[in-house]
Structures are given as structure tokens and as C-alpha cells.
Amino acid sequence: MAKQQKRTDVQPQPLIGEALLRKVKDLEHLNKEEKARECGYYTLTKNGVERVNMMKFLNALIDAEGIELDGKQLGNGRGGRSASYRISVQSNGNLLIGAAYTKQMDLEPGDEFEISLGRKHIHLRQVEPGEELEAS
């Protein structure tokens, strides 16, 4: 276990975002606990003992990098396939847009779309409630 130091100085505000990323890069010669400490991710106990908070430091790094780990919680909490952004024509000639896409777009049963066909693309435009579909 790392040696705990007794400190009496005032605890700084932890760095976040770009400032955190720059500081970590500048401290590449230090180990991760020393980096966390230098970036302000520690607390002082009432006895003046310093404790490094690695979880807060690592979570701040993840946030600063823009990495989304939680994602959107899908409706009923069950897993499912993630969107691959590719589909294939089924043997019956249908194209199926899966639930991963409709959940990502917050679509509800009954939502309507206008379909425009191009040479090799399909464009969907959501029709607002009460709006009439254009006749082609």
C-alpha cells in the first residue's frame, strides 16, 4: 500500500476537461497515483492524512476524453444488439430497421415517416402529428 503523508495545506480544486488532459500529459513521468494527486484528486482526512481518489481521477479522465461508457439506458433494461448502421435486404425483399435505431432516435409506436427513394438510397422524413403526407 502507498505511503500516506500528513499534510496541512489547502486542498486544490481537481482539474477537469482539457486542463486535466494537458496536466496528465505533462506528468507522463509520474505513476498514476502521483498524477491523480498532482491533478487535485485527493482528500485530506481530519487528521491531515492525504488519500488519493483514483476512481474520481479515472472518471474525470474518461469524461475529458469524451468517452461515453454509460450510454442510453434502453427501455426495459434488457440488452440487445447495438446499431451497426448497415442493413441487408431480407429474402422477402423487405428492409428492416431494428429497434436499436428506433430507440436511439426516441421513436414511439405509431410515429410516421415519408419515404423518398433515390437511385441507391432511401431518405426518411418524420411526419409531424396532423401533417398530411405529400402525394408522389
Automatic annotation (TrEMBL):
InterPro entries: AbrB-like, SpoVT-AbrB_dom. GO terms for molecular function: DNA-binding transcription repressor activity; transcription cis-regulatory region binding. GO terms for cellular component: protein-DNA complex. Keywords: DNA-binding. Residues 84-129 form the SpoVT-AbrB domain. This is AbrB-like transcriptional regulator family protein. The keyword Glycosyltransferase does not apply. PROSITE patterns: SPOVT_ABRB (PS51740). Transmembrane segments: none annotated. It comes from the Bacteria. The keyword DNA-binding applies.
